[in-house]
Write a structure and sequence with these properties.
By secondary structure, the chain is of the alpha+beta class. The chain is 20% helix and 19% strand. It is globular and about 50 Å long. The termini are far apart. The relative contact order is 0.22.
Length: 193
Amino acid sequence: MANSFVFDPNRCTGCDACRLACTIENELAPGNSFRRVETFNERHRPDLPLYHVSLACNHCREAACMDACPALAYSRDPATGAVVLDGDKCVGCKYCAWACPFDAPVFDAGQGVMTKCDLCRDHREEGRNPACVDACQMRVLSVDDFTAGIDGDDAVFPLPPANLTEPSTALVPHRDVKRAEREDPRVGNEEEI
């Protein structure tokens, strides 16, 4: 089973409940989280859309952090597909953070080791959602066994590969992209342009 985060930017309000839930669930210091919410067009320019993106570890199918770790502290959980870090093996060299194009591994200076999202593995083993998913009142986050895009009106697409890795997070297209496709069917179809 390959679990993936699915994010719908069309309903996200940027409330940070997912980030706060991650902080609480993982007993992290205030202000720290394995999840972050990025806001685009914070100045509210009228010619640009305002939207938010909630990001955490993408649990990549080809995980650059795993390949870069000299201590072999990373593994893939066979039950969930999550990329997990064994803090007891980690030597705190930060190579995984340098290799990850998504800034998912975070150095914990207090412990001297790297930390990261494990997809709330204990929740997943019990058939529950990760804390960030349950905390989202707008239901913009979900976890699914996602292996390919879903066609039609409910289309979701994986994040594109980023040089060293193949992220397994999926995004619902933003409504402005869908609107542009309705107005000009060539948008999003580079073969026809």
